[in-house]
TrEMBL record:
Mg(2+) binds at residues 37, 227. It comes from Candidatus Methanoplasma termitum. Binds 2 magnesium ions per subunit. Belongs to the UPP synthase family. This is Tritrans,polycis-undecaprenyl-diphosphate synthase (geranylgeranyl-diphosphate specific). The gene is uppS.
Length: 259
């Protein structure tokens, strides 16, 4: 290894250690939600356009990022794995993503560290649009980790926030029609109870990769007071140091909650 490379690696390592020390001195987010964007652009630029390999590396990054969160004791992690709009993509690509997700769910549910650290895995979204084999994998992962509560890993799959809100409105309307609740009982709290995330705290930090600066129909109700962080890095290339920078940015902000 050449001397400049050695110096560069040492400097990078020191910078990372300094960042870790710095963020441990401030408040850590309880819940981080991630819009994982850029798999296909990463593939186009670095993998000769092999979208499947881009998605594979993106899936590997999910598990790596979860490790970072567990090491920092971040209690809730939510990832936007597949939106309802993503189903408009090429059928072969969707099939590959489904197979990838299915394998990942089984693998994570059997991961010793997941159980040692008591991580609960949950998947929310419109499951009716998913293949039976993926539904079985979801059931397996959720049942195998249902007794855990120290950490929570949530996967938004076949998810769209507008659809989630409409489902909640319909559910509440039915209860009003059936005289289970009164119109005056409807509040922000009651509405939140009818969302997929009813027992999950709202995200403190929403992070999006790839340089896109938008929310893309993700947790629209829940992000009312979330801090937003955008980075140009494509998801498969997202590094621990990029993650630390996002948390440092969060810590440097003053959260006012509308006040």
């Amino acid at each position: 290894m050449k001397l400049p490379e050695v110096v560069s690696k040492k400097a990078y390592s020191k910078y990372q250690k300094d960042l870790i020390k710095e963020i441990h001195e401030g408040p850590l987010p309880k819940h981080i939600a991630v819009i994982m964007d850029g798999n296909r652009r990463y593939a186009a630029e670095l993998l000769d356009g092999d979208n499947n390999e881009g998605h594979r590396k993106g899936e590997e990054k999910i598990e790596e990022m979860l490790e970072w969160c567990l090491d920092l004791k971040i209690q809730y992690v939510t990832v936007y794995a597949l939106s309802t709009e993503n189903f408009k993509r090429d059928t072969d690509e969707i099939d590959f993503i489904m197979n990838l997700s299915e394998a990942a769910l089984y693998r994570m549910a059997d991961n010793k560290k997941i159980h040692d650290l008591k991580v609960r895995i949950r998947v929310f979204g419109d499951r009716s649009t998913l293949p039976d084999s993926v539904k079985e994998a979801i059931k397996y992962a959720e049942e195998k980790t249902a007794h855990h509560s120290d950490f929570n890993f949530n996967v938004a799959m076949a998810y769209g926030s507008r659809q989630e809100i409409i489902c909640a409105v319909k559910d509440i309307a039915r209860k009003v029609a059936n005289r289970e609740i009164e119109i005056d009982d409807i509040s922000e709290e009651l509405f939140s109870e009818h969302l997929y995330t009813s027992d999950i705290p709202d995200p403190d930090l929403i992070l999006r990769t790839s340089g896109e600066v938008r929310i893309s129909n993700f947790l629209l109700w829940q992000l009312a007071y979330s801090e937003l962080y955008f980075t140009d890095v494509y998801w498969p290339g997202f590094r621990f140091i990029d993650f630390l920078r996002a948390i440092r940015s969060y810590q440097q902000r003053v959260r006012r909650y509308g006040e």
